[in-house]
């Protein structure tokens, strides 16, 4: 019997060529300047207050690489890249110590969200299927083997100098950090606008 699959959830990833040590130093300086930080999805750990493209010139090499790749995401979704473009909304830093994690959440009003990892970590980012759909799948009968059609979640590793991007409406979380070392990432949201639209 033939099988077609539709309504897929894209996750893009790539290894970058960024000066990681410089970015780690930037993240530590940001934390020193505001030890309290922000409290949103993080359970423990430190999250910076949001900042924007151009606020910290030392981040521009990284942000420009992300922005360049986001144009491919725009194309993959079938949007007209001659009329529309991607641009950064907010950006923030996450530093998780041992046992810290991020609760399940989504990012509202954006096209793409993502994370750039400055450290290797066994604490993975996890993406979840729509909860109502998953409840229905599991309530009908026991699932013998997980696959792309029935899996409730999928995980991606946190690898140093790697970028992961995904649609902002996909529920996601970060596993508890099992190691006695920092898990550092820079997260962001990206939106779409018509070219020529002023900010």
Briefly say what this structure is.
This protein is α+β, with helices and mostly antiparallel strands.
Structure, described:
The chain has a single domain, classed as Jelly Rolls. It is an alpha+beta fold. Strands 1-9-6-11-4-3 form a six-stranded antiparallel β-sheet. The mean pLDDT is 95. The protein contains three helices and eleven strands; from the N terminus they run βαββαββββαββββ. It comes from Candidatus Nitrotoga fabula. InterPro entries: CHP02466. This is Prolyl 4-hydroxylase alpha subunit Fe(2+) 2OG dioxygenase domain-containing protein.
Q: What are the main properties of this structure?
A:
199 residues, Jelly Rolls, globular, six-stranded antiparallel sheet, 21% helix, alpha+beta, 11 strands, single chain
The run of helices and strands is: EHEEHEEEEHEEEE
Strand order of the largest sheet: 1-9-6-11-4-3
Q: Tally the beta strands.
A: 11
CATH topology: Jelly Rolls
Judged by helices, strands and strand pairing, the structural class is alpha+beta
Query: How is the main sheet built?
Result: 6 strands, antiparallel
Mean pLDDT: 95
Organism: Candidatus Nitrotoga fabula
Protein name: Prolyl 4-hydroxylase alpha subunit Fe(2+) 2OG dioxygenase domain-containing protein
Pfam families: 2OG-FeII_Oxy_5 (PF13759)
InterPro entries: CHP02466 (IPR012668)
